[in-house]
Amino acid sequence: MPSDVDAVQLRGIGKRFPGVIANHDVDVTIRSGTVHALIGENGAGKSTLMKILYGVQRPDDGTITIEGKDVVLKSPTEAIDAGVGMVFQHFMLADNLTVLENMVLGAEKLHGIGDAARTEIRRISDRFGFDLDPDVLVEKLGVAARQRLEIAKVLYRGARIIILDEPTAVLVPQEVEALFVNLRELKDAGNSVLFISHKLDEVLAIADDITVMRRGTTVGTADSHTATKRQLAELMVGSELPSPETEESTVTDTVELSLDGVTLTDEFGRNLLTDLSLKIRRGEVLGIAGVEGNGQSELVETIMGMRIPSAGTIKLGDQDVTHWHTRQLREAGIGYIPEDRHRHGLLLDAPLWENRILGHQTRPPSAKGMWINRKGARQDTERIVADYDVRAPGIDTPARALSGGNQQKLIVGREMSGDPVLLIASHPTRGVDVGAQAAIWDHIKRARRAGLAVLLISADLDELIGLSDTIQVILRGRFVGTFEPSKVTPQDLGTAMTGGEAA
Ligand SMILES: Nc1ncnc2c1ncn2[C@@H]1O[C@H](COP(=O)(O)OP(=O)(O)O)[C@@H](O)[C@H]1O
Ligand SMILES: [Mg+2]
Question: Quick check: bond before 76 cis, omega within 30?
Fold first, then answer.
């Protein structure tokens, strides 16, 4: 039963720890009688904000208004007096005491420690469906029951605004359902619940309102009736980013890469690739779909001069490059994001700036005449780290110390440098987190708009459909179908990729 006065208003909240801005410019409004979800990736600042609302942390900036009254909360006791209770991620119960003893501990003044307390516990337990026996030892309780006891404890202390920090992290699905039943009861009784989570299905199932935090601040609100998981995920990681969807076509008439009848045989004379022909134009992304091991790697290695075709021609623009070496191809303007970044993409023990040189040792800014240009390479690595948001302590850090997503962003940044005319991208976002994936998509899209031609090999069909202008399906080394991404579904592709077996 939402009332006119908001349960909580947080305005301009800021909190700094040494070297970390945990919260800044945080604004949240919790309507009375609602379940309000606070969502965000790990480290977004959710717990810090809730500890501020519960008086555990003092904010450096901002104001807190509870039920219409401005408050300064110097301790949890003051928060409880103002009607706020919090259940932490790690429970704070005494195992060797009973439910009743845990409930009344520190709150003896409210209902004593005897029959009145027992009656109140029973009342709360019955009202909200907590199913708590006052005389059971806490050590006998499972996780879900302990959580219900923690919630009951804050209600016992008179909380009307209940903060639950990632309550479902410790529960199995059936227990989550049961908790949600409890939360709806709490709400129906006029309480407000702050539900912290990063699980979007749960949030959409239980919340009325949603506030999204990213990097310490609130970046948006959403209505759970209309929001989608995708929208929320976008807000959590940065809205500009995470769809592979390209908008308008940027395909031109200028052919950058063409293959004509390319066939590759192995040492026993068997065909690995059979009669492959394709064209990629300036501003075009050609996607290759296929079940792993159907010739994708061989196709890329043939184009990149690591294998020599037994028949057919490969042209870069007008130039026949069929027998060129990898280095010549790179110098002619091909960027190459390899399939296995650990084997072919990076020297893991070398610092980032040396990895910038890898494969680019003959061209500026890594080279000056015949010599390696150390300074140029270092400066350009700084540029890549900034432009591609490579999170690393510095350019002297070994590549090994970076997360997979940041390693991949470094490779993409390196391969896009020097404005290549053609990018061969094998699984460019495989194994990277959603933020890095979005950043990589964004860079490919931007380069495509600027005229880059891209050969995209990916096992992620949404990525292929989103980024590509045309999709070719490869099966046992042959192209078996051409699809228009706007008209094809992942199911259609799946069928073609298996030669119809999946139909
Ligand atoms: N007591 C603290 N001292 C120093 N840094 C902290 C402290 N509490 C949180 N942080 C930092 O503040 C940031 C936000 O953390 P937190 O509020 O726990 O995020 P979330 O709950 O969204 O995962 C993180 O970078 C975290 O390391
Ligand atoms: Mg947290």
Answer: no
